[in-house]
Amino acid sequence: MTTDAPLIAILDDEPEIRRLLASALEDAGFRTASFARATEFEAGLRRMTPDACLIDLGLPDRDGLALVHRLATQSGTTVIIISGRAQVQDRVTGLELGADDYVIKPFDPAEVVARIRARLRKPAREAARGSQSARFAGWTADFDRYALTAPDGTDTPMSHAESELLRIFLDSPRRLITRAQMLEQVGGTAGDSFDRAMDVRVSRLRTKLGEDPKNPRLIKTIYGAGYIFLSEVAWE
Questions:
Q1: DSSP letters of the chain?
Q2: Which of 110, 111, 201, 222 is deepest in the core (most CB within 10 A)?
Q3: Are strands 52-56 and 7-11 parallel, antiparallel or unpaired?
Q4: What is the pLDDT of residues 47-99, one digit of tens each?
Q5: What pLDDT is stored for residue 125 in this prediction?
């Protein structure tokens, strides 16, 4: 394993889960750092910058969902929830708070490895093409900083998931983007929980763009089909 291999942080209070994930990921060529408590994990983040984080929600010392939300909105890293909470509402809440994916225990370690690989391929493709900021309708989206700059100069942070969604729109302006295309690009799992979480992400992105929810100017809903981004886009 090379020292420049992607680093995956694992936060789970079950030792066997940590060992299982670390073994599968290291066999696949990743580096890993494992933590049993949120306090240890947060201390670790001061020393390292993981490429992705696997977060259990049932932590002994911290609300896992609050930690997921903070990571998603402040760090820009890929966040995947690993949880035994299998209810649709749990999955929706996790995705709404900014998680990029949600894996239910018990799981196949190979599936987790595949999902991480799919997530990390996207930033690599984006870096290869060079353009990491875009201008549209007076706004600037900076994908390096995960930030939106309003026409008046005000900065607003984006979560990794919001940034990913906005890039989908900016890559295909004035074209219908179906739910199936969104599913393919963000790597979600088909079903009601994904659809509801995606609707919430669109709503939050509209709010950050100052949209009137009853008459949005930039992100138009085509009922039963998907969405259209209505502005011209200039990549920089």
A1: --TTSPEEEEE-S-HHHHHHHHHHHHHTT-EEEEESSHHHHHHHHTT---SEEEEES--SSS-HHHHHHHHHHHT--EEEEEES---HHHHHHHHHTT-SEEEESS--HHHHHHHHHHHHHHHHHHHHH---EEEETTEEEETTTTEEE-TTS-EEE--HHHHHHHHHHHHSTTSEEEHHHHHHHHT--SSHHHHHHHHHHHHHHHHHTT--TTS-SSEEEETTTEEEE-S--EE-
A2: 201
A3: parallel
A4: 999 999 999 999 999 889 989 988 887 777 889 999 998 887 888 788 778 78
A5: 47
Instruction: Note whether 38 and 45 are within 8 A (CB).
Output: no
- What is the rounded average pLDDT for all residues in the chain? 86
| Amino acid, res. 24 | A
pTM over 0.85: no
User: What CA–CA distance (Å, rounded) separates 8 from 117?
Assistant: 11
